[in-house]
Design brief:
CATH architecture: 3-Layer(aba) Sandwich
Number of domains: 1
Order of helices and strands: EHEHEHEHEHEHHHEHH
Distance between the termini: 63 Å
Low-confidence stretches: none
Structural class: alpha/beta
Oligomer: single chain
Strand content: 5-15%
Helix content: 55-70%
Number of strands: 7
CATH topology: Rossmann fold
Number of helices: 10
Length: about 290
């Protein structure tokens, strides 16, 4: 096989947002891209906007048989080249007052955002090792500090931080870089879906739950939706992914935000500010209702 590209890369969660932006940008940069989707319409959309070097692959990262099937397809397509990159981007958000989130919903949050990421990494690691490629995990600033009503998401991203840091050390002997990208609000984060989720959760709340949490939960979610609408474009995160893949010595972490300086200052202050002070600031903001 004559190599006509920079190298092969797998991007999970490529249907929309950051995953789609990264897959298309990597394709334009000359990589052979395997973009994971779950629906035929998303596969067709990617194919219509890309070159012949982008191949959609169907993979639900919570299903071991689909992960293995996708890895087999990639392996047969790239022959002995190996993978220069794996971008673990797929994820979802479970929101609501923790007291009333079902254990099944919590498990599903971790099934996708943590266990699915690990399962994909384990399956594709032999191909990564063959090319001394890089693993890029898409975390969140929610993995650095938590927030009320999105604690399942934050907990899963905290877990991803631990997984990422341990894997970086374990794979060092093979020269495999493991990099974490931690964005803030992203304009493509589907604010309408968050609003729909809130509507369903609120409708299913008991009268007591609505009385206890309804007003502050609604206020917080409205702020989250607005923050997403005003967030950074997904292409900004895709740019960071490409940088992490291509620079000779990548950072171990990339923090990204539309207000980059404000985010960095907040991250620094969080290390020194007492928990009670941070709590007081959040509680004060929730009193804006």
């Amino acid at each position: 096989m004559t190599q006509k590209h920079k190298g092969a890369i797998v991007v999970t969660g490529a249907s929309t947002g950051v995953g789609r932006a990264a897959a298309l940008m990597l394709d334009k940069k000359g990589y052979q891209v395997f973009a994971s989707v779950r629906k035929e319409k998303d596969a067709e959309s990617l194919k219509s906007d890309s070159s012949e070097n982008l191949t959609p692959i169907f993979m639900d990262i919570t299903k071991a048989e689909e992960i293995k099937s996708a890895a087999d397809i990639v392996s047969k397509s790239i022959y002995n080249e190996g993978l220069v990159g794996l971008v673990n981007n797929a994820g979802l958000l479970v929101d609501g007052p923790l007291e009333f989130i079902s254990i099944d919903e919590l498990r599903w949050q971790f099934e996708v955002n943590v266990f699915g990421q690990i399962a994909v990494t384990q399956e594709f690691l032999p191909l990564i090792r063959k090319a001394k490629g890089r693993i890029i995990n898409i975390g969140s600033v929610g993995g650095v500090f938590s927030a009320p009503y999105i604690s399942p998401l934050c907990a899963s991203k905290f877990a991803l931080e631990a997984f990422n840091d341990a894997l970086r050390i374990e794979l060092h002997p093979w020269g495999i870089e493991v990099i974490l990208i931690e964005p803030g609000s992203i304009a493509s984060a589907a604010p309408d879906k968050v609003e729909e989720s809130f509507g369903r959760n609120f409708a299913n709340m008991s009268p007591d739950a609505k009385a206890m949490y309804g007003a502050t939960y609604k206020f917080f979610v409205e702020g989250l939706i607005q923050s997403n609408r005003e967030g950074m474009p997904p292409e900004q995160v895709a740019d960071a992914i490409i940088k992490a893949l291509e620079v000779r010595k990548p950072k171990t972490r990339y923090f990204l935000s539309k207000g980059q300086l404000d985010l960095m200052l907040e991250l620094i202050l969080r290390k020194f500010r007492p928990d009670r002070s941070s709590d007081a600031m959040i509680l004060k903001s929730l009193k804006g209702i």
